Amino acid sequence: MGIAEQLNTYLTLSGMLFAIGTFGFLARRNAISMLMSIELMLNAVNLAIVAFGAFVPNLQGDGAVIALLVMAVAAAEATVGLAIVIAIFRNRKTPLVDEYDAMRR
Amino acid sequence: MRAWIYLLAAAVAGGIVTTPAIFVLILLGGSFNDALVASLATLMLASGLAVVTMRDIIRCGLAMIVCFCALAGLYVTLGAAMVAAAQVIVYIGAISVLILFAIMLTQDKVGSNRLVFQTQAAPAAIAAIVVAVLVAVAVAGTNWGAVAAAVGTATRDLATLLFGSYVLAFEAVSVLLLAAVVGGVFLAKREKDVG
Question: What residue numbers bound the domain in which B175 lies?
């Protein structure tokens, strides 16, 4: 059985992409890099959902619909997140999150 | 001199994409579909790594577009053509462009010369590897009741579901998007009295 006909292939890929996004979110200093990492994680979850929809008979069709809804929510998240980053940048003049320290000084 | 560097980079990128396909086709005796999935998966993971590790954040954004393209290809191999189209339109067409605009609005000139990673980068890498290993172990050890081949979803069935049993979620998402757009405009708007 080839790798293209196994659910495990896609789920493992999804886990690896999610791990890459986790690393980016925890390690990057730039706020927009962190938002990009969140997009990677959302895409990883979407891949898992679409794979379940394609391979599990009970979820036939539901997977694609849920993936579309996740995309719409991700678009909303990106809009608000980037607006917040731009608003903070206007006040602090830096995109680096470790220099946003006004509330712990 | 610079042209040679770009040619070399293009050759390396082409090698990254074609090597797994050749490996699967010849050494493992897989089908053409397997080779396609192997290529797209390698491209997705390589560009995803580029997103989180590259120094120049504009290049990170462009690598993210490559990653989304590879994901759209994987959706097509899974038989979800509608999701692949939405991926191209929503992620590549809208979210990536939004992120690139935000990058250009928020970078200062010395930004790319400073440190890219926080001090906790090494623990973050360990945590990410642990997450990947845990997911792989859980995936391998679970019986999902999956069938042997991917079954695609016809666009007509998808529309019936979306406007049938999922219509409440659909309407809620549309209201959420409206609220997010209004909130985004309000947050990013320059206030007149503050400047």
Answer: 154-195
ipTM score: 0.92
Mean pLDDT by 10 residues, chain A (105 residues): 81 95 92 94 95 88 91 93 90 83 81
pTM of the model: 0.90
Query: Could you read off the pLDDT of B128-143 as tens digits, one per residue?
Result: 999 999 999 999 888 8
**Of A50, A94, A97, which to mutate for an interface test with B (greatest number of B Cβ within 10 Å)?**
A50
Report chain B residues whose CB lies below 8 A from the CB of A79.
Answer: 98, 180-181, 183-184
Instruction: Give chain B's domain count.
Output: 2
Which letter, b or e, does each residue of A10-44 get, where b requires 16 or more Cβ atoms within 10 Å of its Cβ?
bbbbbbbbbbbbbbbbbbbbbbbbbbbbbbbbbbb
Residue A104 within a domain: no
